[in-house]
Request: fold
Amino acid sequence: MIEVKHLTKIYKTPGQEILALDDVSLQVEDGEIFGIIGLSGAGKSTLIRCINMLEKPTSGKVIINGVEITALEPHELRTARQKIGMIFQHFNLLSSRNVFDNVLFPLEIAGVPKKDAAKRVMELLELVGLADKAKAYPAQLSGGQKQRVGIARALANSPELLLSDEATSALDPQTTRSILGLLKDINKRFNLTILLITHDMNVIKETCDRVAVIAESRIVEVGRVIDIFSNPQTSTSRSFINTVVKRDIPEELLERPEGHAVSGDRRLVSVSFIGKSAGQPLISSMIKKYDVDANILYGNIDRIKDTPFGYLTLELTGPPDQIDEGLLYLKSHGLEVEVLNHV
Amino acid sequence: MFDAWMMDRVLLATWETIYMVAISTFLSYVFGLPLGVILVVSSDGHILENKAVNQVLGSIVNIMRSIPFIIFLILIIPLTRLIVGTYIGTVASIVPLTLAAIPFVARLVETSLKEIEWGLIEAALSMGANSWQIISKVLLPEALPSLTLGVAITTINLVGYSAMAGIVGGGGLGTLAYYYGYQRYENAIMWVTVIILIILVQLVQMLGDSLAAKISNRRR
Reply:
């Protein structure tokens, strides 16, 4: 478990002080993928660097599995860092070493005997699917391959924690997906805790269990990704979500269409599905069961990590009591229902 | 005027020049390389940041580099005598040549190492590398192509310096050109010396370029 307690970082330059982190506290559980999302300059990069002390916090504590990282002597910190892997936006591979030797590097630092180290490197290259590239130099690899080498290197000393610093920000969407897939796979296979920072909500949506939203050096919202998506509490979170899922309904739809006379009631409702309920034909069974007509105005189905997640905007018409009962039926089957207008 | 005896003199002088330059290049790196590394790692925000050390070494390097070589040569005659026993001859020339080249090498090494992206150092730090491991496994190997070119530049500079040393009795092609070319008006000797110097410089530069390219290409 990683505990971040009241972390503050102030950069002092002659004439001014910049507050990069303002009393940040967090807890990351073992085996989870925890995301920190924020715009550039929000402080996320400083935060992840404070976890392994690449940046020294001005005040506050970082505790990893009971060890207070922020209180270690330099030589103790170096030993502790061997158990904290890190991957980077620009990969940071050594151009002077081929793929094999790049992955060997952290094992050399840790003083692992040559024979064991060589075996370990080949295992890791198999794991990331680059065993055939062992002799290639970084300059000969694509961005995705470079990041795979970066991941193999970060895993070399069997870390307890993997830090990912914008690891997919320099990659195209397809490559991003495959790298995120690899990270999820590693997380499952080794129960490895991953802490990642990103400015891309897609990364959070596809990989993370929980997320912290950081804005202006502070954490403004923390929670399960599903909860933040279905019920964001802050405008920062909402604007990040809007980059991924469109939730706003066009104005015209909220008004009654002209020349469209309907007997009875007409309501616009937004229904969101999480998990299993997304797979059931609940809308059609509601229509059959009650005297209600449903007109689908807008729909979207997606996936948050491994959970299906969808929105539907429906126009329901029929006798008011029948609509009420129909909505109750949907709620009782686990759907989130929100009435957008009552015409 | 240009007979077999003279030919022997030219060959000997060429050999003396190569000998002086090779040894002083080597020795200037023995001292200048660590000095350059210290200048880099002790600089602001680097792995062994130390303002005092950085400023003191930086000033010494600047002072030494601001003295013209021909004056430096005369200035350190007592030191040369102390070390070699004499200040005349090929071996004695190695002292001023080396001393003059050390600060030059230090700055060249510093420039090469400063070009390395901080991200690489950060990655090594994140793996738990100590300062020595960062210097020996990241900084120097990553800068190797650029360091190699630096060696060529230093060698070429020392070829020029060695000719200057030759004028005050340092031996090598400089002495030959001065005695025969200048004092006895034997223009042919002067020209032969110049041509040999041109060839030497060309060879060193070509060797440096091809070595640096070879290292870079292997990584490409």
